[in-house]
Amino acid sequence: MTGSREKEELLADSPGAFPPRRPARSMTWSTMLLVWVTVFVLIWSLIRSQPTTLLRDPDAQARPVVPRDDLPADEQTTIRLFKEASPSVVFITNIEYRRSIFSLNVFEIPAGAGSGFVWDDQGHLVTNFHVIRGASAIEVTLADHSSWTAQFVGAEPDKDLAVLKIDAPAERLKPLPIGGSSELLVGQKVFAIGNPFGFDQTLTTGIVSALGREIPSLTGRPIRDMIQTDAAINPGNSGGPLLDSAGRLIGVNTQIASPSGGSAGIGFAVPVDIVNRVVPQIIRHGKVIRPGLGIHPFPDSVARQLNIQGVLIAEIITESGAEQAGLRGTVLTRSGVVRQLGDIIVALNDQPVRSLYELLDVLERFEVGGRVKVKILRGDETLEVTVELQSVE
């Protein structure tokens, strides 16, 4: 026994002796994770290696189509309206000419796009003025995808309306029937057809959300009596028609109110009563011939400074209806000091007038050569005179 113990001590002390045994440790978390991943990969490989023919059914067939009843009358009306009205809607491209700074060659680039519609079979088209403003050339695409170069006939920027003309044959042109906007009611169904974001012949539907809205035009003058609608109107819809459920034109889609620039359910259209009054004048004269009293008024800012509600006359035009009716202008001294205020217009045909814009709006309802009753304040007196209207620029 003694010899055996001595032998073990010698082995323990000698170089290269075996290290002492350590107690066994449990499997670590990383090792367990590796094992599970390996098992998962093996199982997945076995599944993937199974033949896919086991998942197939050689007898599979298309499911039978379930017949449906006739479309509801409301849907049939909308479909019929689009078929009848869409050939009247056109796609307008505003083209700008630019010259290369390197080659000096002139090239065309699209500067904007919008919508429009056929006004008559002579090739006149109606759109918004802002759609074609600043264009070097204008290209019009009809519903049959034929393209035509359009000529600018004229515009009324105060109403954001413009008229173009193309030399297309009459059989390609389908004018829209004209409705009335004065008879519209909030809640009526409306339909907009246009080219939002360049997607031509797009139909959207909605209702008349409100009437009598006022929005600014490009010139800053308000466009009154606008139609508000929740029919989706997006960039590219401008100049397209707004229709009633009978397919009649009731407005020209013009602007949207949207923080994002896309449809927010608040769009505005110029009422057809204005369009039907303005467009024939543009076709006849290239511009709108406005009736006037024959006066030069002060701006509203001057009237406000003087605490005046109405239109203060600055000057009477010689040989005008205002002169013949005895209206008076403001008298100034040589140094420009007011010596005597002119007449203050407060009503036309019993309709109150509180600003220059209101005066112009009322005058637009009359024709050149017509006669209107003008109520004025002259000092402490209230007078009424009759004035024959004349054309003004």
Residue-averaged pLDDT: 85
Low-confidence stretches: 7-18, 103-110
- Kindly report how far apart the N and C termini lie: 136 Å
Number of domains: 3
Beta-strand percentage?
25-35%
Count of beta strands: 22
Please name the CATH topology of the largest domain: Pdz3 Domain
- Give the fraction of residues assigned to helices: 10-25%
Describe what this molecule looks like in 3D.
- The chain has eight helices and 22 strands.
- By secondary structure, it is α+β, with helices and mostly antiparallel strands.
- The chain has three domains: 84-172, Beta Barrel (Thrombin, subunit H), CATH 2.40.10; 189-285, Thrombin, subunit H, CATH 2.40.10; 290-392, Pdz3 Domain, CATH 2.30.42.10.
- The longest helix is centred in the first third of the chain and has 20 residues, at 29-48.
- The relative contact order is 0.09.
